[in-house]
Amino acid sequence: MTGKRYKIAIIGTGFVGLATGAGLAELGNEVICADVNKDKIDSLNNGYLPIYEDGLPELINKNKKLGRISFTTDIALAVKASDIIFVCVGTPSEENGEVDLSQIESATVSIGEVLDRYKIIAVKSTIPIGTLDLMEDILEREGKVKGRDYDLAVVPEFLREGRAVYDFFNPTRIVIGTDKESVDKILTEIFLPLNAPIVHTSPITAQVIKYASNAFLAARISFINEIADICDHIGANVNEVIEGMKYDKRIGGDYFSPGIGFGGPCLIKDLSGFIKMVEKYGYQANYLRSILDKNNHQIKYFINKLKKLLGGLLKDKIIGVLGLTFKPNTNDVRNSLAIEIIKELKKNGANIKAYDPKGLEEAKKYLDGIILCDDIYKAIEGVDALIILTAWEEFKEIDLERLKSQMKSPIILDGVNLLNPKRVKNYGFIYEGIGVK
User: Fold this and answer.
1) In a domain? residue 236
2) pLDDT band per the 50, 70, 90 thresholds, residue 4
3) Is the pLDDT of residue 186 over 70?
4) What is the CATH number of the domain that holds 392?
5) SS3 assignment for the chain
6) pLDDT for res 50
7) Number of domains observed in the structure of the chain
8) Is a pLDDT exceeding 50 seen at residue 71?
């Protein structure tokens, strides 16, 4: 626990807001989480989390019982009761790739309208350069003066969906972006119990650290997918290539997972936003754009592999799909490449049966005209081919003998290299992964 307890408001109750709020409460602070979505707040007050995040329900319930975390739609109440406000609202992409700052604007207006004494406003949302100026303009219109009524800081999050609770308590680093020593001191005190390296920097640099970190992770995925596709063409094994590379400490083996590419609510959005942001400053980020281009190409590459396995045509073929979420251990299907692949398969005339352990309800918002199955074996019955699009552990344990008996054709295209090729082929399957056969 911290030496001093702070009263903290969390604006926005997505996975970042909830994980941050629950974590800060566990450290002994008094936290109020606020959101304009009444259904979401009602669910939280009734003990139901609108997201699937390992360990988070237990952490929230524990701190609710201890009186250290509460949930409200009354943003004014949360702001007035707090010393520090963490802004954790969404910053999705617009159609042109720029960042949609409407939720940031709305949250800032709500804060400015009720700000009654000095507070630190710390932004955890991923925001482009210029956003703090926008927030200052909004607060100024509400009659608030920077340094007297508030100070702004940028404290980017580095939480992985599915591992957010673990990542909160075991951070690789804490980044605090502020130009004011007193603000830095308070924010440092809040996060000091986590025993992580703390990077003290300016707000602009903190913003770039977040964007650059996600861009680099995306680059590693696109890089290894390029190598995997090369392996497909020349007959090498990408898993053995990674094994031979990872012992070089300059390279390592993390984030080398060949497959269908990177998706989800962060990497694509942040990479696109980073590119658009620097273009406004007169710089063409061609290398960053190539990372996105490779990611888009990977979907086409995967679908072409499936076409070849099925004799060149997808029309009227029945495809079984395992995995709908953008990654395992979450129910989040936003920007899931599995969803994009299914849509492309449908355009090519394929019929789809799909299963996911946690993502079925969310997938209904994005997909129609397909059969969503609540059982893994229902999704494979009578299919011409099976494709694996999310690396859920459950799929590793699939009964291959039963699988083969229920499929129309014994074809598996593993888009995440989850299964053991040798074992699968021993059961008589035609198997391909990405960079492995």
Assistant:
1) yes
2) confident
3) yes
4) 3.40.50.720
5) CCCCCCEEEEECCCHHHHHHHHHHHHCCCEEEEECCCHHHHHHHHCCCCCCCCCCHHHHHHHHHHCCCEEEECCHHHHHHHCCEEEECCCCCECCCCCECCHHHHHHHHHHHHHCCCCEEEEECCCCCCCHHHHHHHHHHHCCCCECCCEEEEECCCCCCCCCHHHHHHCCCCEEEECCCHHHHHHHHHHHHHHCCCEEEECHHHHHHHHHHHHHHHHHHHHHHHHHHHHHHHHCCCHHHHHHHHCCCCCCCCCCCCCCCCCCCCCHHHHHHHHHHHHHCCCCCCHHHHHHHHHHHHHHHHHHHHHHHHCCCCCCCCEEEEECCCCCCCCCCCCCCHHHHHHHHHHHCCCEEEEECCCCHHHHCCCCCCCEEECCCCCCCCCCCEEEECCCCHHHHCCCHHHHHHHCCCCEEEECCCCCCHHHHHHCCCEEECCCCC
6) 86
7) 2
8) yes
* Share of residues in the chain with pLDDT > 90 (%): 96
Mean pLDDT, the chain, as a whole number?
Answer: 96
Q: Is the pLDDT of residue 372 over 90?
A: yes
For the residues 409-423, what does the mean pLDDT come to? 97
Full domain range(s) for residue 127: 7-200
pTM for the model stands at: 0.93
Which residues are identified as catalytic?
266
